[in-house]
Recover the amino acids of this structure.
C-alpha cells in the first residue's frame, strides 16, 4: 500500500490551510465562483468561498435582513461601506429590488468590485475610504484572505477620503437610506455613528461587524459605539455570531455588559466577533424585521 496520503483524507482544517497557502501565491488571479447561488468574480486568494460552503449561512443574515426591509413596493436603498469585491451587494440585489451605494478604498478590490457591478445600473461605486474624523490621515492597506484593514503610516500613496455627510450630499438617489452596512475590519464602530448622524432625520437600519480585537487594533474603543448610537435615539440590537447564526436581541444600554465575551479567545488564535443590526424605535418595519430574524432575548453567552 502506498504511504502517500490522499488529500481527501486530511482533516478539513489542514486541507483548507494548504489551499490558502497555494492560492496566496497567486492572490489576484481571477476566478468565477458561485457563492450561495450568486455568481461573482473573485481573486483566487479570497476566503469567501471557504466560508460559504454547503450548509453555511455565513453572510445570509444581511441578505435576509435586506429582504425583510425591501418587501414593500419601494426599492431598497443600501449603503455598503467596505464593499470589497461587491459580494454583499450582489447577493442583496439578487434577493430584492433595490440600489446600492458601494464605498471601497482598496485598489486591489476595486478592480473586482467594478468587474462585478459596472454593468448593473442599480450600483454606484465610490472609490474612497469613509473618513472617521473628516481628515485624510495617510494610511496603507494591509490585506489578508480577501479582507483589508488600513494602518496609519508616516507617508503613503494618496487615498481619497469622503465623509458620510458628503455621501448624502453628492448621491441624491440615496438621500433616503434604508439600510447601512459596514465591514471595515475595526473601523465600523467609528464609522457607523457618523453614518447614523448623517441620516439622522430618517434613521436607517445599521448593520455592522462588531469585533473588540480588530476595533482596538485600529485604535477604536468598541464599547463607545453604543453610547453614541443611544444618543442618536437608537435602541434595539439584534446579534448574530460570526457564522451568521442568531444569538438574540438586546438594547444599546445593555449590550456592553453582554459583550465582554468578545474579549475571550476561542481556541488558540480565533477571536469572537458578532454581526449586529441596530434599529431606531421609530422604525416599526425595522423592528419587525429583527424580531422575525432573531427571536428571543440575548442572554449572557459565557
Amino acid at each position: 500500500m502506498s504511504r502517500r496520503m490522499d488529500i481527501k483524507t486530511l482533516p478539513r482544517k489542514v486541507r483548507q490551510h494548504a489551499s490558502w497557502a497555494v492560492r496566496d501565491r497567486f492572490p489576484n488571479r481571477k476566478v468565477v465562483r458561485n457563492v450561495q447561488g450568486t455568481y461573482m468574480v473573485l481573486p483566487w486568494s479570497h476566503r469567501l468561498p471557504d466560508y460559504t460552503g454547503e450548509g453555511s449561512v455565513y453572510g445570509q443574515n444581511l441578505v435576509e435582513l435586506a429582504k425583510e426591509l425591501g418587501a414593500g413596493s419601494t426599492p431598497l436603498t443600501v449603503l455598503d461601506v467596505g464593499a470589497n469585491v461587491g459580494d454583499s451587494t450582489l447577493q442583496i440585489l439578487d434577493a430584492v429590488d433595490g440600489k446600492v451605494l458601494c464605498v471601497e478604498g482598496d485598489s486591489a478590490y476595486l478592480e473586482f468590485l467594478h468587474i462585478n457591478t459596472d454593468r448593473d445600473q442599480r450600483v454606484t461605486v465610490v472609490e474612497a475610504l469613509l473618513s472617521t474624523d473628516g481628515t485624510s490621515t495617510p494610511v496603507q492597506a494591509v490585506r489578508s484572505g480577501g479582507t483589508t484593514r488600513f494602518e496609519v503610516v508616516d507617508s503613503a500613496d494618496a487615498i481619497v477620503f469622503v465623509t458620510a455627510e458628503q455621501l448624502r450630499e453628492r448621491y441624491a438617489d440615496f438621500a433616503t437610506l434604508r439600510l447601512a452596512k459596514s465591514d471595515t475590519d475595526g473601523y465600523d464602530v467609528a464609522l457607523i455613528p457618523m453614518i447614523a448622524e448623517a441620516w439622522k432625520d430618517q434613521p436607517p437600519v445599521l448593520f455592522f461587524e462588531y469585533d473588540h480585537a480588530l476595533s482596538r487594533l485600529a485604535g477604536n474603543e468598541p464599547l463607545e459605539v453604543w453610547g453614541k448610537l443611544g444618543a442618536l435615539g437608537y435602541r434595539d440590537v439584534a446579534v448574530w455570531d460570526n457564522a451568521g447564526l442568531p444569538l438574540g436581541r438586546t438594547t444599546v444600554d445593555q449590550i456592553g455588559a453582554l459583550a465582554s465575551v468578545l474579549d475571550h479567545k476561542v481556541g488558540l488564535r480565533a477571536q469572537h466577533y458578532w454581526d449586529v443590526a441596530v434599529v431606531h424605535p421609530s422604525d416599526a418595519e425595522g423592528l419587525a424585521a429583527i424580531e422575525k430574524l432573531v427571536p428571543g432575548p440575548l442572554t449572557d453567552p459565557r
User: Anything to note?
Assistant: Residues 1-10 have pLDDT under 50 and may be disordered. The chain has eleven helices and 16 strands.
